Amino acid sequence: MEDCVFCKIRKGEIPSTVLYKDEEMMIIKDINPKAKVHLIAIPNEHVPMIEMMTTEGCCELGKFMGKISHMQEELGLTNGYRLIINQGEHAGQTVGHVHVHILGGEQLKDF
Ligand code: 5GP
Ligand code: ZN
């Protein structure tokens, strides 16, 4: 998608700190961290909302969670982490490209 910030990051048109990249997804540092470690896992495919994803796309998201769980140490997520998907206005979604927030690196507040 032309004007999507995450697609631009994937194409290298906007600089970012990329911690992991493969043929299906990338993990970058969030530009405005809400925790000591705040990363975003972004599928390569541009889909604005979960409800627009195919069943396969949803399965891919599940696979990403599995990958993240195997990268805990290298991502600085010892002692646990939190995964969040903001979906729509009430959740505060600001980028219309499905992504998973990864928060950790410290004791997170209850919510
Ligand atoms: P949302 O609010 O849609 O769930 O999450 C979007 C996230 O993308 C926000 O936490 C925001 O800080 C992050 N973000 C927005 N623009 C950029 C950018 O240009 N670079 C990086 N690394 N993160 C961004
Ligand atoms: Zn996009």
C-alpha Rg (nearest Å)? 13 Å
For the largest beta sheet, what order do the strands appear in spatially?
Answer: 1-2-3-5-4
What is the N-to-C succession of helices and strands?
A: HEEEHEE
Q: Describe the biggest sheet?
A: 5 strands, antiparallel
Secondary-structure class: alpha+beta
For the secondary structure, the number of strands is: 5
- Global shape: globular
How far is it from the N-terminal to the C-terminal residue, by CA?
33 Å
Output the number of helix runs: 2
Report the sheet-strand fraction. Answer: 15-25%
Q: Percent range for helical residues?
A: 10-25%
Uncertain ranges: none
Enumerate the distinct ligands. guanosine-5'-monophosphate, zinc ion
Present the secondary structure layout:
Elements: H1 5-10, E1 18-21, E2 25-29, E3 37-43, H2 55-70, E4 81-84, E5 100-104
Antiparallel strand pairs: 1-2, 2-3, 3-5, 4-5
Quick rundown:
The protein has 111 residues and is α+β, with helices and mostly antiparallel strands.
What are its keywords?
binds zinc ion; binds guanosine-5'-monophosphate; alpha+beta; 111 residues
